[in-house]
Specification:
Elements (H helix, E strand, L loop, with lengths): L1 H7 L15 H11 L4 H16 L3 E6 L8 H10 L5 E4 L1 H11 L5 E2 L6 H6 L2 E4 L2 E4 L4 H16 L4 E3 H9 L8 H7 L4 E2 L7 H10 L5 E3 H12 L5 E6 L2 H11 L5 E8 L13 H6 L3 E11 L2 H16 L1
Parallel strand pairs: 1-2, 1-9, 2-7, 6-8, 9-10, 10-11
Antiparallel strand pairs: 3-5, 4-5
């Protein structure tokens, strides 16, 4: 009985004082040893990401579109610019928000409590507590997409989604654009639901008058090729849905991710993938049995900047 008890009581909770903490990386180490409820997973995530970023492995990054409407767009673009990810999987709205802002569209601070019927009448859309004027979204995307697609359709009749996104990214000149940074570093961006947004609508309308097709199965074949390589894989996943599922789905065929950090605000008790803890993915072989993984409950717009800043300090 004493041996069993000692096994549980092997890791002592330690106090720490902020006046003695010098930087973010040291703070995450203190949070890990402090045993706080949300602090320990946060500290664990920093440790896992540090190891994953320095490991010779294929690094996946997945995230939903909503965070790209915020200033976190620049944080993600810098992560790509630093060369710390190899594959990006996201949703169509990411293309919408990234391109709209790269092409001069401006988003504004707002409130969750605004009267949406009033906003509708003055042609402003609300995304949480952000405001997206109509002229900063649909119109700017359709106008610029049309020009690019006209040029591409003269050279290609069929193109994969990730190649199309790369070619569009290469036309941009915005350092904070995720598409621009990915194209610059030849990092593929996969969007499984590529028709689910303004970008997809522009493709659909253009295809009605042009012999131009996006080959979505070519994307899946390329993802399969990447996942089936001999290298181990790791992933930083922000939010759930199709981008998270595509990341873990293809990795099940190689026995699962070796490293995995997942940030979510969803609950697991409705059975949703967004709420599913990474330990559930072990049963599906999407995360390896001996993997280093952690789920952090919280808003990525708050957590990710602190987490990455700490990891960058450790790497430097």
């Amino acid at each position: 009985m004493n041996e069993e008890r000692e096994k549980y009581l092997s890791d002592v909770v330690k106090d720490f004082r902020l006046s003695e903490v010098k930087n973010f990386s040291e703070l995450t180490e203190k949070m890990l040893s402090a045993g706080g409820f949300g602090a320990k997973p946060f500290g664990t995530a920093a440790s896992i990401l540090q190891e994953m970023f320095t490991e010779d492995c294929i690094k996946f990054l997945s995230f939903p579109a909503c965070v790209v409407a915020t200033g976190l767009r620049g944080v993600i673009a810098e992560l790509v610019e630093r060369g710390l990810v190899d594959v990006i999987i996201t949703t169509c709205g990411t293309l919408d928000h990234d391109l709209a802002r790269a092409w001069g569209g401006k988003y504004y601070h707002g409130s969750f409590e605004y009267d949406d019927s009033v906003l509708r009448d003055i042609e402003i859309a609300r995304l949480g507590n952000l405001l997206v004027p109509n002229e900063s979204y649909g119109g700017v995307i359709e106008e610029n997409m049309s020009k690019i697609l006209e040029d591409l359709s003269s050279k290609y009749k069929k193109i994969s989604g990730f190649e199309l996104i790369s070619k569009i990214g290469a036309t941009l000149h915005d350092r904070n654009s995720i598409l621009y940074q990915a194209a610059k570093r030849n990092i593929p961006i996969f969007v499984p639901g590529i028709t689910d947004g303004a970008f997809g609508s522009a493709l659909t309308f253009f295809s009605q008058d042009h012999d131009f097709t996006v080959d979505v199965l070519a994307d899946e074949r390329e993802l399969a090729r990447i996942s089936f390589t001999s290298k181990p894989t790791g992933a930083l996943m922000i939010g759930g849905g199709i981008s998270k599922h595509h990341t873990i789905w293809w990795n099940q065929f190689k026995g699962g991710l070796k490293y995995a950090v997942y940030i979510t605000t969803a609950t697991q008790y409705d059975g949703s993938l967004s709420g599913a803890r990474l330990q559930e993915a072990v049963s599906w072989k999407k995360v390896a049995k001996d993997a280093k993984y952690v789920t952090i409950d919280g808003d990525a717009t708050v957590l990710l900047p602190f987490l990455l800043k700490a990891v960058y300090e450790k790497l430097e």
